[in-house]
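Long-time lurker. I teach an intro course on protein structure, and each term I like to show students one example going from raw sequence to a predicted 3D structure in token notation. This year I'd like something fresh instead of my usual example. Would anyone be willing to generate the tokens for the chain below so I can use it in lecture? Attribution to the forum is fine with me.
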Amino acid sequence: MSINRPAVPLRGDERETLRAFLDYHRATLAWKCEGLSDEELRRRSMPPSTLSLLGLVRHLAEVERAWFRRVIDGEDVPLVWSADGDYQVAYDARTATRAEAFAAWEAEVEHSRRIEREAESLDVTGHDPRSGEQVSLRLVMLHLIHEYARHNGHADFLREGVDGTVGA
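-- Reply from a regular --
Happy to contribute to a lecture. Here you go:
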């Protein structure tokens, strides 16, 4: 597996650093899935859990959509895999394919990048319907870094279970 992750600036400003760390973690998820078949990507961690690498990709597509498009940009769009707003549906990747999961995830990442680039500052806010509060773009970016870092830890174990590959 080749590692193709962006370098994180050692002395960048806040926005540049947040952007780089988020892209670093996005690239880490893609790297953990590299070279695997659909069947391997769907392999569950330990039943009855539905956690799989492909499920993580699908879940993170939902996370990107929810926080950037729905909260910061105020778009009225449903979740990718659940019209009812059930985030757990994305984890069930039993019939999913790499092509559909990665197409959705990559599209949501591009929307997120556009929204972040177009925002005047990290102080831009959006309404989070789950908390009922206004939240800043800064918080959203930090939350996504946290979300990816946590799930990339899961991806480390999932990948090792598929073919023995390790490494962060």
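Some talking points for your students: The chain is about 55% helix and 5% strand. Residues 69 and 75 are 6 Å apart (CA to CA).
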